[in-house]
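Hi R.,

Here's the chain you asked about this morning:
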Amino acid sequence: MRQIVALGGGGFSDETSNTLLDDYILGLTGKAAPRVCFLGTASGDGSAYIEKFYAAFRAPRTEPSHIALFHGPSFDPAPETLVNLGPALREHMLTRDVIYVGGGNTVAMLAVWRAHGLDRLLRDAWEAGVVLCGLSAGSLCWFESGVSDADGGGMAPLLNGLGFLDGSHCPHYESEPERRPAYQRLVADGTLPAGYAADDCAALHFVDGRLARVVASRPGARSFRVERTAGGQVDETPIAPTAPPPDARSPDRVKLRRHRSAAGREGVPDVDRVGERRTRVCRPAGGTGRAWRLLARSPGRPATGHVPRR
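And here is the predicted structure, written out as tokens:
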């Protein structure tokens, strides 16, 4: 089963006191302590963002790790293993239960991934059953195209997404005022194909390329199907959340896991929003060549700071 959960925004990046969306994602694995790998490429592998991930996914909740392609002068590299592009990196990614992509600059992230072949590894992981997820840039990247503000010049079409999911996407649909009109205009004039929009705290759960469920971590978080009509207008159809995602520690989550087991299939989630985060692109680890920094931090390390919204 191939699964992608696209958050319009939210999760540990934005909702530090609300773990419902992240709990939902972890619950899809059916494991008590799933192996979760974080990709912070879109934020330039900002150390504060990485620390925030480890604080949110520390053991015994998960077995966390991350892959860093950049590092700056304030980046704490220990403990780490420098892994050349090859079997070690591939094995790590394909043996995770969840790969979680953070927000930031979508354009830069996709370029770096393609330069290092990570786009192919992500597809292989998805085909192997690893749950792919993310917010903002980490939501938009899975689609063919969408709306991005990564170039700093306002909302613009992004036309070179990974294409794991058909159509277009717009995160932060209602939380950032310029998103909705920009997306509707680009769909109406044919620049973007039909697709899905999600607000902050809403998530779209796709199974084998089809939307299976929409979930939300707060009341009022919405998602939509946005299509061009024959007359060149836009048809925006709300998609109601199936239900609030259950807490992974609650009896409801236990019941959900049992139901999945009995049915012989995984369950599905709801809707979310988060604005893209931009940051300066740092140099690749080591300066030249294809190299990865594959890191697994001590589970108890505290989080410091956050990735600013711009």
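One quick note: The mean pLDDT is 78.

Cheers,
M.
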